[in-house]
Amino acid sequence: MKSSFFDRLSGSSSNNDGFDSFDDELPAASISRKDNPLRMITPSSRTPITDDDSAAGGEGQLPVDVHQTQTDIVIRAFVAGVRPDELSISISRDMVEIGGARAEREQVAAADYFTRELFWGSFARKILLPQEIDVEASSASAKDGLLTIVLPRLDKAKQTKLRVKAG
Question: Domain segments of the chain: what residues?
Answer without folding.
Answer: 5-45, 55-152
